[in-house]
Amino acid sequence: MGGVRRWWAALLLVLVVATSCGSASPSSGVAPVQNGPLAVSVAGNRLVDQHGRTVVPRGVNRSGTQYACTSGPGTFDGPTDQPAIDAMRSWEISAVRVSLNEQCWLGINGLPVGGDAGGYRRAVTDFVNRLTASGLVVIVDLHWNAPGTQQARGQQKMPDRDHAPAFWQSVATTFAPNRAVLFDVYNEPWPATEDVTQPASDVAWACVRDGGNCPGVGFTAAGSQELVNAVRSTGAVNPILVGGPQFAGVLDKWLTYRPDDPRHQLVASIHIYGPPPNETACTPKACWDATIAPVAKVVPVVIGEMGNMDCRSSLVDPLMDWADQHGIGYLAWGWVTSDCASEPALISNYNGTPTPYGAAVRRHLAKQ
After folding, report:
1. Which residue range is the domain that position 215 belongs to?
2. pLDDT, tens digit, for every residue of 82-115?
């Protein structure tokens, strides 16, 4: 998380494979057990499995791997064993988004605390492998980072050119053989200092794609194009999620400023939180119709994060309904047990007991 929520941010997606035995509508239910390991790819404006069946992401964000390693020792906040995964699956999810720390993965600037890069990588990789072995799709994202010798103890306005390309080369090399893993190149870009209630400028959009010296960013940024290039330089063909500016809160110019992917495996990502006063840029339904739906006609769209900041469901209920109608996936934040007044926590304990907000998400997932 970040954006209007970054003041408390110092705190996998479950892709619901929506299919029937033949062609599938966007709102169809969880797919049957796959014949062999799941392989997800982009086909036109859909995510599909290895049999060409539509895959629609519906699930949760599993937070912790971005910050637990900065206090150490340890990689996770809460359990990640098979019973913990089974608790997530009991919500009828089929994908999990896992938030990573750039420097804990690379083992630089004194991170991870009390450990080393090898231990962090093994812990994350083993968790991801347990998730995919359980039939889940995983999205790994670059969540916390920092330039130079500064420790990655929070989210920056942009990925840094110092370390982010190396991070993605390593992550992509690690997970390329697992085609149930998707890559989200950066959690929430927010270059420039713009009013999130207004359209993002072309300058901000260009910064997100091209990086370099961006207004409001105090270091040399890595753009989405060079991060896509870093992934593809490894030979990995996994789909790549790319967000826009304003904390990944807008998609209005995504088609104009999307990076080039020689594999044609890009997915547009947006984050949506509310209600006011803690709303993101595209909270009203009119914005969904005007700016998200047109993109979803061209490429797959995933709501990489969504949540009600008041622990209720006034935003997520209509958002999930709307997304189902348009074949758009969504990943609720977050599978964490923090105070629901501080962030949209789905659960009160790791056996899956929902908060009031989480109960609404769980009810909706059960209907799919």
Report:
1. 3-367
2. 999 999 999 999 999 999 999 999 999 999 999 9
Q: Which amino acid is at 152?
A: A
Could you give the CA distance from residue 125 to residue 62 in angstroms, rounded to a whole number? 14
Q: Look-up: residue for tokens 């982010």?
A: 164
Task: Please give the model's pTM, rounded to 2 decimal places.
Answer: 0.91
DSSP state of 263: T
Q: Given pLDDT bands bounded at 50, 70 and 90, which one contains residue 36? A: low
Q: How far is CA 99 from the centre of its chain?
A: 7
| CB-count burial class (<10 Å; 0-12, 13-18, 19+) for 200 | buried
Which residue intervals of the chain are DSSP H helices? 82-89, 102-106, 117-133, 164-175, 202-210, 224-232, 245-248, 254-257, 285-287, 293-296, 316-325, 356-367
Residue 335: C-alpha distances to residues 74, 93, 119 (Å): 18, 12, 23
Mean pLDDT of 338-357: 92
Instruction: State how far the alpha carbon of 321 is from the alpha carbons of 243, 268, 284, in Å.
Output: 22, 19, 14
Number of domains in the chain: 1
Match 């495996």 to its residue by tokens.
265
CB distance 348 to 356 below 8 Å = no
CA distance 38 to 52: 11
pLDDT (0 to 100) of residue 2: 53
Residues for the chain: how many in total?
A: 368
Residue 300: CA count within 13 A, CB half-sphere: 27
Enumerate the β-bridge partners of residue 183. Answer: 140, 240
Provide DSSP, 53-66: -EEEEEEEEE--TT
Contact 146, 67 (CB under 8 A): no
pLDDT at 53: 97
| Gyration radius of the chain over CA positions | 18
The CATH number that applies at residue 301 is 3.20.20.80
